[in-house]
Automatic annotation (TrEMBL):
Annotated organism of origin: Bradyrhizobium canariense
Gene3D superfamilies the record matches: Metal-dependent hydrolases (3.20.20.140)
Cited PANTHER family: DIPEPTIDASE, MICROSOMAL DIPEPTIDASE
Gene Ontology MF annotations: metallodipeptidase activity
An example Gene Ontology biological process: proteolysis
Protein name: Membrane dipeptidase
A Pfam family reported for this protein in Swiss-Prot or TrEMBL: Peptidase_M19
InterPro entries linked: Metal_Hydrolase (IPR032466), Pept_M19 (IPR008257), TAT_signal (IPR006311)
């Protein structure tokens, strides 16, 4: 039903890419396995907020082949990344039936792709798994979910997704509030009030307890400040803000109060890479250029906030979802067509500006509570501009802090919180 832009089916892409992997993967294995002889001796370089499965699903790409835009395994691995949390995003599919349906489609896509490229990657269910995978010279991939695993928050659905490998969940959605939590983006994406519940409701608190019991890491990103504070308070395990910035540094992101509460619970913030939230100079440019500011987020907001332009008719037997898929794919593919305003180019953030956020968190709450969470997608400017730039971030970290702190920030902090997500 869902054919990639090339006209091939996703199953064709997975089948054919498996054959190519058997040949190309040999050289990769010979190269990577010389770098470490034991899993616990391998240095973890990890991005805790990646979107690659959506690209496989909607574009039909093989991300082990370098692409011209967005995030892919090939360029990230060449840049030193060996572990990620891949956040599937059922954007636009926001109701009881469509959200879990789209989440299942995406998880199945990732599982099949991982199996087809087992010589280069594997799904990690725990930090020990991840270290073993990385130690074998492959990319370790945790499955996360952004924008909703199920907008009703059915506990049985959550349990089923955990069994399929889901290990992190962004509690609030981008597409309006769900049945258990407000969303900071509700007004922007769904035209709804961001304070419908005043945070999370009782059902939300029950889901927090279930996530703690299962060992699903709770992500407070995109929640209102009330949601974030209540998630931190109600969780018995550390929680994370997987892709955020620091309000005191750029004017956008987490407040000092939330950062302190997050750290007191043992959690962390993954520093975002989008120019519109991380760069002080870029944000100043946005403030003086309203048209440019609108353009900076147009493509991404248009995709994330998609709603069908038609209604589901009575007696529908699949025609609605086929049309919805075609329409949403157009929004996703439009990300690649986005162009930055030429007058903004001199204001794009640098790796050192990104590291200012890290430095602030270190000084406020300590180096144990900050990590990398770039949220790199096509359709907007970011730092780094593409996955080849991870070494620039590591170099910037070395300019502001100690080697041991860099080791934590580059990956060990993510390992710690994933290992502490289960709390009885």
């Amino acid at each position: 039903m869902n054919k990639p832009a090339s006209g091939q089916t996703r199953r064709d892409v997975l089948r054919w890419s498996a054959a190519a992997a058997a040949v190309a993967g040999l050289a990769d294995r010979l190269n990577w396995t010389t770098k470490a002889s034991a899993a616990d001796a391998v240095e973890i370089v990890m991005d805790g907020h990646v979107h690659v499965t959506n690209r496989i699903y909607w574009e039909g790409i093989d991300p082990w082949t370098p692409t011209k835009y967005g995030w892919d395994f090939a360029r990230a691995r060449a840049a030193g990344v060996n572990c990620i949390i891949d956040n599937i995003g059922p954007y636009g599919y926001w109701n009881y039936n469509y959200t879990p349906k789209q989440a299942l489609r995406l998880i199945d896509t990732l599982l099949r792709f991982s199996e087809a490229h087992a010589d280069k990657m594997a799904i990690a269910l725990s930090p020990a798994d991840a270290r073993r995978i990385v130690g074998s010279g492959r990319m370790a991939v945790f499955i996360g979910c952004e924008s909703g695993f199920d907008h009703e928050g059915d506990p049985d659905v959550l349990d089923a997704f955990y069994r399929l490998g889901l290990r992190t969940v962004q509690f609030a959605t981008q597409t309006g509030f769900n049945a258990f939590s407000d969303s900071a983006l509700a007004a922007v994406q769904g035209g709804e009030k961001p304070d419908h519940f005043g945070g999370i409701n009782e059902h939300g608190r029950k889901l927090v307890r279930q996530m703690n019991e299962l060992g699903i890491l709770i992500d407070i990103a995109h929640g209102t400040e009330a949601v974030q504070a209540q998630l931190i308070e109600n969780s018995r395990a550390p929680v994370v803000a997987s892709h955020e910035t620091v309000k005191a540094v750029s004017g956008a992101g987490l407040s000092d109060e939330v950062l302190k509460a997050l750290a007191n619970k043992g959690g962390l913030i993954g520093i975002h890479g989008a120019a519109a939230v991380v760069g002080k100079r870029y944000r100043q440019w946005m403030a003086s250029n309203p048209a440019g500011a609108a353009n900076s987020g147009k493509a991404v907001f248009g995709m994330v906030g998609y709603q069908p332009s038609f209604t589901r008719p009575p007696g529908d037997h699949g025609e609605f979802i086929e049309r919805m898929d075609r329409e949403f794919r157009e929004r996703w593919l439009a990300l690649a067509d986005w162009k930055e305003d030429p007058t903004a180019l001199s204001s794009l953030p640098t790796a050192d500006e990104w590291a200012e956020h890290v430095d602030y968190v270190i000084k406020l709450v300590g180096a144990d509570h900050v990590a990398i969470g770039l949220d790199m997608v096509a359709g907007r400017s970011s730092v780094p501009a593409d996955p080849t730039g991870y070494p620039d971030l590591i170099a910037a970290l070395h300019r502001i802090t100690t080697p041991e702190n860099v080791r934590k920030i580059a990956g060990e902090n993510w390992m710690r919180v994933l290992g502490q997500a289960k709390a009885s």
